[in-house]
Amino acid sequence: MPHWLQLMLDSLGPLLWAALVFTIPLTLLSFAFGLGLGLVAALVRLFGPRPLAAVVRFYVWIIRGTPLLVQLFLIFYGLPSVGILLDAFTAALIGFTLNIGAYTSEIIRAAISSVAKGQWEASFSIGMSWGQTMRRTILPQAARVAVPPLSNTFISLVKDTSLAAAITVPELFQAAQRIVATTYEPLILYILAALIYLAISSVLSALQTRLEARLDRYGGFMEARA
Amino acid sequence: MIELSHIVKQFGDNVVLKDVSVSFAEGTVTALVGPSGGGKSTLLRCINLLEIPTSGRVTIGEEAIDFRPGVKVGWPAIQKLRRQTGMVFQNFQLFPHRTAIDNVAEGLVTVLKWPRERARARAMELLEKVGLAGKADAWPATLSGGQQQRVAIARALAPSPRVLLCDEPTSALDPELSGEVVEVLAQLAREGTTMVIATHDLRLASTIADEAIFLEAGVVVEKGRDLFSRPQRERTKRFVATLTQAPAEQAGSGI
User: Fold this and answer.
1) Which residues of B205-225 are buried (b: 16+ CB within 10 A; e: fewer)?
2) Cα–Cα distance between A204 and A87 in angstroms, integer?
C-alpha cells in the first residue's frame, strides 16, 4: 500500500470522530438555534414595535459587518476580561448561532414579505387570528421561498465551523492540524479534511433537493413560471 | 340584518366613503355597482372589517361595533363580527399549499376546531354543491380560474356565515368561466343566501341581485330594485348605458 493511502486510512478514524463529535453537533445546534433567532428577529423587524426593530437592525448590521473569526475571538478570548468565561464549544456555539441568526433573519424576512397580501386577507376572512394566519398560511408558503437561500447558509456553516479550530475546539480541521504536526504531511491531511467537508456538504445538498421537491409539490412555482 | 350606518372611511386625507348608510336584509342579494374608485370595494370590506371604518357603526345580526377616529377596536370584537361573514375575492386567493378540500376545511379545523373528519365531510358537501367533488384532492394551481373561484366560494360558505361578501367575483375570469361562477352564485341566491356583491359584471348583477346600490365618489347615488332597467338619476343612466355598451366599445377602443 502506498504511503499516502496508508496515512489517509490511519487518519480517517480520528478525523471522522472529530466531525461526529464536534463539527456536526456544532453545525446542527447552531443552525437550529440560529434559525429560531432568525425567525424571531425577522418577525420583530416586520411586525414588532419600532425600537425593537431598530435593535434587530443594529444586531444584523454588527454581525454582517464584522468577520466571523473576529466575533469568535471576541467571545472566547475577549469576554473573560469582563468576567464571562466560556468553554470553547459553548463560545463557538454562541458565535455561530448569532451569525446564523443575523443572516437567516434577512432571508426569512424577505420570504414572509414575498407571500401575497391577499393570503393574509383570505385567512382573516375565514376568521383566522394573526397567529393562525402566520403559522398555517404565511410560513408554509414562505418556507418554499426560503429553503434555497437557507440551504446556502447551512452549507456555508458546515465549512465555517472550521474557524472554531482557532478558538481551540478540537473539530475536524483541528484534528487534521494535529496529525500534520506529528506527521509533517499537510497535503495529504488537508486533502482528506477537505474531502470530508465535501462529503457532508454533498449530503446536505441532496437533502435540500428533496426538501424543495416536497415543498413544491403543490406546483406553485410552475404556475409562476407559466 | 346587516347594517352599515354613517360609515366614513379615510385613507390619509383621501375620504373614500362619505357617511354611507345602507342595510341588507337577510335572504337578499345586493349588488354594489359604480365606477372604479367609487368606494364599492371599500364598503364591502368594511362589512367584514378587512377595512376598519374611520367612523360609523357596523351591525351584523346581534353584534355591533361603533367606530370613532383614533379609537382602536379590539381584535376579539372584530373577529366576532368577521366570523359571521364569508368573503370571495377577485383573484380567488385560495391557499396554494392546500388541496381544494383542505382549503374548504381550513376554517372549520383551525378556527372552529372541528375534528378533521367532520370538517372534510362538510367540505366535501360544499364541493359537491359547487360541482367540484371530483377535484377535491387537486392543488389550486391545477384548477382553472372558474374552478378556483368555485372552491373559494365553498371555502367562504364552510362556517355557514350570515352573509357572503363577493368582491368582483367574476372580474378575473373570461366570459365562459365567469358563467360557471355566476351559475353557482345564482343557485345560492335561490337558496336564500344573503349576499353582497361588488361588481362590474352586469350579467351577474342583473341576474341575481334583488337590489342594486350605485356608489360614486364615496356616496350612494341611487339604490333600487330596478336600477338597471329603470335608473332614475342622470348619472346612473349614463353608467348603466356604458355597462350595456361596454363589449362593443371595448372591442373598438382596445390597445
Assistant:
1) bbebbebbbbbbebebbbbee
2) 28
Looking up cell 342579494 gives B29
Between chains, do A125 and B82 touch, taking CB under 8 Å as contact? yes
Question: What is this model's ipTM?
Answer: 0.91
pTM metric for this prediction: 0.88
Which CA distances in Å does A75 have to A65, A83, A96, A148?
16, 11, 11, 30
Residues of B in contact with A146 (CB under 8 A): none
Number of domains chain A is built from: 1
Residue B204 Cα to chain centre, angstroms: 12
Cβ-Cβ pairs closer than 8 A, A with B, add up to: 73
Quick: pLDDT tens for B31-59. Answer: 999 988 889 999 999 999 999 999 999 99
Structural domain boundaries, residue A90:
3-225
Q: List phi, psi (to 5°) of B170.
A: -115, 0
Given CB atoms, is A27 within the 8 Å cutoff of chain B?
A: no
Q: Is B80 near chain A, with CB under 8 Å?
A: no
Q: Which residue of B has its CA nearest to A137?
A: B95
Looking at the predicted structure, is the pLDDT value of residue B90 above 90? yes
Residue of A nearest to B48 (CA): A125
> Taking 90 as the threshold, does the pLDDT of residue B249 lie above it?
no
Residues B33, B201: Cα–Cα separation, whole Å: 9
Residues B155, A121: C-beta atoms closer than 8 Å? no
DSSP chain B: -EEEEEEEEEETTEEEEEEEEEEE-TT-EEEEE-STTSSHHHHHHHHTTSS--SEEEEEETTEEEEE-TT-PPPHHHHHHHHTTEEEE-TT----TTS-HHHHHHHHHHHTS---HHHHHHHHHHHHHHTT-GGGTT--GGGS-HHHHHHHHHHHHHTT--SEEEEESTTTTS-HHHHHHHHHHHHHHHHTT--EEEE-S-HHHHHHH-SEEEEEETTEEEEEETTTTTS--SHHHHHHHHHHHHHHHHHHHH--
CATH value at residue A67: 1.10.3720.10
Give the bridge partners for B8, in sequence order: B55
Contacting residues of A for B84, CB less than 8 Å apart:
none
Cβ contact (<8 Å) for A122 and B96? no
Task: Report residues of chain A scoring pLDDT below 50.
Answer: 221-226
